[in-house]
């Protein structure tokens, strides 16, 4: 089977193209695509580190490195949860809030661009198909 005959080939190249475009835009804002994604997903009331790890699907060491970098950039601060001292929540600083606004704007504009080139029915079919692929892939157990 040739790579271009597989579903995962098109998933990978499509996501890689999107991620590269986001990185290209984000670099002009002084961040990366991954950092922008993290900023977008840190809530006003704080977000637990464990939630961020699950959301991004990355290992603790990589997450720790990213969080340290974000702290050094002055985008976030960490605070122990008042009800559970073992849990740490991440909060955005004013600079982090500004970068999140920029990141959200980039995502909104990029999706508006995509939506002008993909019909509503194509978009709905694509999202349903991707959801199905995700479910099937998650349940796959090789022999």
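Q: What amino acid sequence fits the structure above?
A:
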């Amino acid at each position: 089977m040739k790579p271009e005959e597989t579903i995962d080939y098109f998933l990978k190249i499509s996501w890689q193209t999107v991620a590269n475009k986001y990185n290209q835009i984000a670099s002009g804002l002084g961040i990366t695509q991954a950092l922008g994604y993290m900023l977008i997903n840190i809530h006003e009331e704080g977000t637990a580190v464990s939630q961020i790890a699950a959301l991004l699907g990355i290992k603790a060491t990589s997450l720790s490195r990213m969080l340290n970098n974000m702290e050094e950039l002055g985008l976030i601060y960490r605070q122990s949860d008042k009800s559970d001292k073992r849990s740490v929540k991440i909060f955005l600083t004013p600079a982090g809030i500004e970068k999140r606004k920029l990141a959200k704007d980039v995502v909104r504009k990029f999706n508006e661009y995509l939506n002008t080139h993909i019909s509503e029915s194509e978009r709905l079919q694509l999202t349903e198909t991707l959801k199905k692929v995700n479910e099937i892939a998650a349940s796959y157990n090789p022999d």
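Q: And what stands out in the fold?
A: The two ends are 20 Å apart (CA to CA).
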